[in-house]
Amino acid sequence: MGSPADTSKSIKVERYKRYIRRVNSTKLLNASSKLLFRATLLVALILVFLFTFNYPPLALADMYSTQRHLQAHSHFLSSGAWEKQLRHSATPRRPNGLTVLVTGAAGFVGSHCSLALKKRGDGVLGLDNFNAYYDPSLKRARQAMLAKHQVLIVEGDLNDTPLLHKLLDVVAFTHILHLAAQAGVRYAMHNPQSYVTANIAGFVNLLEAAKSANPQPAIVWASSSSVYGLNTENPFSELHRTDQPASLYAATKKAGEEIAHSYNHIYGLSLTGLRFFTVYGPWGRPDMAYFFFTKDILQGKSIDVYETPEGKQVARDFTYIDDIVKGCLGALDTAEKSSGSGGKKRGAAQLRVYNLGNTSPVPVGKLVSILEGLLNSKAKKHVIKMPSNDGDGPYTHANVSLAFRDLAYKPTTDLPTGLRKFVKWYVGYYGLQTSLKKDIPSA
Ligand SMILES: O=C(O)[C@H]1O[C@H](OP(=O)(O)OP(=O)(O)OC[C@H]2O[C@@H](n3ccc(=O)[nH]c3=O)[C@H](O)[C@@H]2O)[C@H](O)[C@@H](O)[C@H]1O
């Protein structure tokens, strides 16, 4: 046993050691929290750098798509109420009415078709990703217009597989009117990938969901006059060559027609492709010439009017939206049922392709002079040779005898009448009535 002095000394030594251990461990803790803090700061800085400076389009696109994905999937979470809304919108209000999923429902042709279907008592559910290819506020305005008629548009992408399967699970669609696409002939030079994503991957994704559905819906979808590409026979008939597309847009639409063939062959999906010819009218697309010519003429800006390399006028078979809507409804009404179910083919199914044009090409110069008359304003025309490498063709002209025979399709609106209706809508929508020198005469 030691003396009290020894004991007291050893207690003090022990206390000192404990103190030193505590100080050291605090130092260690401080050091490791500092390290952790610095690491977190570094990671945060790297993330901020990546999002803000390094890959802005990628980071933002990812953020938006994740946001949309979460939005779509949050619907699944509160699924009861959401599913009820879907079914309500999709339920027909007439005996034997169709139950139609309209993709691209906030688009130009999609919104008109959705409204026409709803008005005659069919059930309609829309799907649209509201992308910013052109002013999304116009798409929102179309959505609001449809909402007044009890048509719901789900915000989501064709490439969102769980969402597509969910929609087809919740509603037993008899038909899909597939109009969602990356449109525009010349924009394909600037953003080729968007055409592949929407017009090929998106279409395949939709067909995959449709082939697995039970019952399989019949599908009517938008192809394009541009598939005629370098074809020189005139007017364009469905029997002519379509293996020489002049733009990536046209190539993706032609690919769609071939993909439709394979899904029809393998799974018994009923598929009808409609080749639209330069569709125009109220609620139209701001990226199209008739639309931005109107804007530019009213603003006193110059417009480029293309001519062919030989100095000839460029012409289009401009087709009025109401005629196109009748063609789409005719195709839906005559579509036979798909033959398969749950991913298995049970027999041969219908496979069709039709031109939907106006059968009366008009030179672009004439389009401009009609607009000048309606707007009471002289255009500052800048006539230039058509850019040779942007996929544009010199003229289009539809033979619609097949669509007339099978769909009772008969276009009735000439360009002056249709443009008058468009201009009337345009000045009303953009609140320009008072700035025009005279009222737009009624049709
Ligand atoms: O039928 C289709 O399948 C396609 O129709 C539409 O393409 P296009 O017929 O090319 O329409 P659009 O661009 O309005 O040019 C019209 C005319 O104006 C000429 N044009 C064009 C631009 C310009 O600045 N000047 C000009 O003269 C131009 O040379 C052309 O002669 C759809 O956009 C497309 O999505 C697809 O559906």
Automatic annotation (TrEMBL):
It catalyses: UDP-alpha-D-glucuronate = UDP-alpha-D-galacturonate. It is found in: Golgi apparatus, Golgi stack membrane. Its EC number is 5.1.3.6. It comes from the Eukaryota. It is a multi-pass membrane protein. Keywords: Isomerase, Membrane, NAD, Transmembrane, Transmembrane helix. Residues 100-337 form the NAD-dependent epimerase/dehydratase domain. Pfam families: Epimerase. One of its GO terms (molecular function) is UDP-glucuronate 4-epimerase activity. The keyword Membrane applies. InterPro entries: Epimerase_deHydtase, NAD(P)-bd_dom_sf. The keyword Transmembrane helix applies. GO terms for cellular component: Golgi cisterna membrane. SUPFAM superfamilies: NAD(P)-binding Rossmann-fold domains (SSF51735). Belongs to the NAD(P)-dependent epimerase/dehydratase family. PANTHER family: EPIMERASE-RELATED. Homodimer. This is UDP-glucuronate 4-epimerase.
